[in-house]
Amino acid sequence: MNSIVKEILVELLRHKTIVSSWGIENITISDICIHFHANGFRYCGPIDIQCKNEKINIQLGDLYILKYTDLNSIVQILDTIIEKDGKYAENLCNWIEKAIQDV
User: pTM above the 0.90 mark?
Assistant: First the structure.
């Protein structure tokens, strides 16, 4: 397994509370890629994190590719893309209220 993939996995596990809020499922890990499906407030769909030649490419479906090199803030970058925006607290309250009503 690529050493960068290992480092990304460790970073994701370090921030497991944030990562779990993304509603990830269907996780697959290969030598050079981490793939999962996210169900966030801002983005729902497939995410590929590919590691090639010491660079990280983050792809959201067919829409977006971010070339990235800083492992220390990869969780914050992904969280901004998948989950957080200026209305995060409001979105979270609405989601909780809906979940309570559905019970």
Answer: no
Distance of CA 24 to the CA centre of its chain: 8
Q: What strands lie across the sheet with 25-29, from one edge to the other? A: 25-29, 33-39, 44-52, 55-60, 64-68
User: Contact, 83 vs 21, CB < 8 A?
Assistant: yes
Mean pLDDT per 10-residue segment, the chain (103 residues): 90 93 94 94 93 85 77 87 83 86 84
Angle, CA of 84, 48 and 93, to the nearest 5°: 20
Q: Which residue has the tokens 């492992």?
A: 71
For strand 55-60 and strand 44-52, is the pairing parallel, antiparallel, or unpaired? antiparallel
Provide the CA 85 distance to its chain's centre, in angstroms.
Answer: 14
